[in-house]
Amino acid sequence: MTFRQFAFNNVLRNKRLYIAYFLSSMFTVMVFFTFAIFSFHPTFSEGAINENALFGMTVAGGIIYVFSFFFILYSMSSFLQSRRKEFGLLIMLGASDKQIRLMVFLENILIGFAATIGGIGMGLLFAKAILLIAENVLIIEESLHFYIPTLAIVVTFISFFILFFFISIFVSFILRTKKLVDLLKGDKQSKGEPKASILLSILAALLLIGGYSTALYVEGIAVMFAMVPVIIVVTLGTYLFFTQLSVFVIRLLKRNKSVFWRKTNMLLFSDLSFRMKDNARTFFMVAIISTVAFSAIGTLYGFQSYLTKGIKDVNPYTFSYSPFGGANNEEVERDIEVMNRIIKEEKIETKMEALLLQKFQVGEMEVLVAKASDYNRFAALINREKLHPKENEAFVVEQSDAIVMDGPKASERLLGTNISLINGQVISPSRVVESAVLTEINGYYVVHDNVYDQLGTPVYTDWSAVWVAQNANTDQLIETGRKLEEELQYKAFSVDYTLFDINKAFGPILFIGLFIGIVFFVSAGSFLYFRLFSDFDEEKRKFRSISKIGLTESEMKRVVNRQIALLFFSPIVVALIHGAVALTALSNFFNYNLTVEASLVLGCFAVIQIAYFLIVRYFYIKQIKNALR
Hints:
The protein is an alpha+beta fold. It is 69% helix and 9% strand. Strands 5-6-4-7-3-2-8-1-9 form a nine-stranded mixed β-sheet, sandwiched between helices. Helix 13 runs antiparallel to helix 19 and helix 20 packs across helix 22. The protein is elongated. About 1% of the residues have low confidence.
């Protein structure tokens, strides 16, 4: 048997440990290859997609590549730690340090080559499906047809061959400083009773509580100022939580006889503190990486929802017209005629209303004042509540979801200001109405028709015309909006076309963020898998010994289930809490409820993690059972 065959057989014999590393690496290669397929697609090179989106995909590919380096480096370090005893035996049999380093180098090159080829193959297999998904997410008019991505294959293969080559060289030198006695003892060296500082445990709790409280308390622009300090505090608190507080809590539970002596709890807790100590850094890293994934995807999805829903709430009309600058009547008539012509060309039936908007000097403010009859004409168009103020009162109307220019609550100023008429009468505003009937985004007054003529000379006038479509599909509305923008530019506004434009611009960002988030999350799950199976041989010996003194198979399954659940879900639960707090803070910043969006994102990741846990648990318990027979 040659030395290369020996290295190859080593990979086959350790396939249980290598399989997660191989699959995760292959998935990373596949994602990178997918971005390469997009970047070099003929449709994109011809300028059919936004250049910023294409640049974003390139940057995302670079992020994945850099992250892959550290991920693979960490994975290989875990493998080397779990094989210390094997390396010690080889040294005793006469293997030199140079030969062991060469063996590690060849093994990693072999796995890296297979993962690269497998990732490219899987990318080609699912390329058409991914391109079809991208067509809808990126909102591209041209079809993303399947093509043979020769350049993408070459770039991916060379990039990851270089990556695996340098990592192989680097990790092959890690064992040089290990002593033979340390290698032979492997994982049998005494770890000592895990200890935790009471002060650091209390500090961990205070940091987390303080960080959460600050993030949930601040609102508006204060969220931005508090963000960096909160991130630092929560990150430090998370590290101390896993290294100190968790160990301290386990020690308290072990001292509680009613808990520790209950059924198989003794077996669970006696080993749990060691596991928490050994895996603390892994848990911390997984929690932070998962939090980044949750928060990034949740933020992107929430921000898109915020933009689209806000536009729908503020603009209930299909099309609207406003010259913004007091255009003369001839220009207004010409523009409205153009809009009617375009709408008619697209065969869209509409109902229309027009209004001359007038602002008056009220106190120190220039405020729009509308007649009740005009307001009600617009309200009837969209089936909103009509207003009927008395001659001695006025209603303050504001759009609650709009970004008002007069402060966070324009209604507070308007409600406290009386309207003086030219006949000496004073009208007091009586109540506030939240409505988007008129296109004015600031607060305004609605008064009785008889009072309107007594307001005096307006300080500013402008026109507003609106249309509500009766029978049109989304494609018709988008095309009409595109033509209106070409003809009238900023004067015409189409809700459907604006939403289409936002989704088209935001789609690539969300698409890229989703891919990067999935890579981070899969890598986090792989870290947990590595830590679980790195102690697998010791676990088999432990359960084999305990089974000889009466441990039943059902009891063994119960203990293993709890151990694996704690290993998998401890960092994920922490990450979910971090993500929920972060998205709540984002809600406070935008003053917009993101509960649905946050629940959807966090729920999807939780379901994925549960499925991953069930799969790993099945194979883990199966191998433990085989070891007991």
